[in-house]
Amino acid sequence: MEIWHNPRCSKSRAAKAALDEAGVAYTERRYLDQPPTAEEFDRTLTAIGAEPWDVARLGEPVAKELDLRNLPHDRAKWIEVMVANPVLIQRPIIVTDTAALVARDPQSVRQALDGA
Fold first, then answer.
1. Each residue's pLDDT tens digit, 3-23
2. Superfamily for 22-103?
3. For the whole model, what pTM was predicted?
4. Residue 9 annotated to the active site
5. Comparing C-alpha atoms, which of 55, 68, 56 is closest to residue 100?
């Protein structure tokens, strides 16, 4: 199990704490420092069942600078932009051997633990 974590984010810290409390083994990936490759992000999006625009943080200043809201929904282009600017990726993301999900609430973290 891997958590794409941003320690400055309260939702991300809560998900990490829940994993710690559950006593599961996981790898912490500080994705702002270690962004996913385009291939990793593509695989993770497929596992989530989402498109990149579904997990984009459109309120970030860089999203506004790039006019991301108006970028045509071209999956490859969005992936390229988001891995080049990982702050745009919603957090936290928990990746297991069989699934991935955006774990912004306790129910999602439990779902990840149940599927681990």
1. 999 999 999 999 999 999 999
2. Glutaredoxin (3.40.30.10)
3. 0.91
4. yes
5. 55
